Amino acid sequence: MNRLQAGDVAPNFTLNDQNGKSVTLSELLEDNQVLVYFYPKALTPGCTVQAENLRDEKTALASLNTIALGISPDPVKKLKNFEDKKALNFTLLSDEDHAVADAFGVWGPKKFMGKEYDGIHRISFLIGQNGKVQHVFDKFKTKDHHQVVIDYLKG
Fold first, then answer.
1. Which of 14, 27, 70, 95 has the most other CB atoms within 10 Å of its CB?
2. The whole model's pTM is what?
């Protein structure tokens, strides 16, 4: 894994959202900075807590000129189910071939219950309107992720 760092230019990408609509990073950056957060799997406990907190803080993020964009290797149908079951109010993107996760350097070896496998590392990137990584969030608990981001944005 060769993870992006603050100051790096974020790779532009287009992925399908939970409704099957194409979303392109550079288009979102025209009006906002974007919190690109990678999460392993929809509807799992940690990912659900993280998403629900971002849902609940959408207004606070918007007041700081920031929108959240969740990316996982889940198919579009599962993302729609996640959105519906948890009343999510932000965009979820399907990266089934993990090409975007690879480009950001967050796809790689993981360990869980003694087994090794490749998967997404739970890391978030604040992308400025100039297309550069402003900050990398890699030290947080899923339940505190939203607050770590907001505290950073309020600086």
1. 70
2. 0.95
